[in-house]
Amino acid sequence: DAKTTQPPSMDCAEGRAANLPCNHSTISGNEYVYWYRQIHSQGPQYIIHGLKNNETNEMASLIITEDRKSSTLILPHATLRDTAVYYCIVPESNFNKFYFGSGTKLNVKP
Amino acid sequence: DTGVSQDPRHKITKRGQNVTFRCDPISEHNRLYWYRQTLGQGPEFLTYFQNEAQLEKSRLLSDRFSAERPKGSFSTLEIQRTEQGDSAMYLCASSLGPQTRGYGYTFGSGTRLTVV
Question: Distance between CA A98 and CA A19 in Å, rounded?
Answer without folding.
Answer: 23
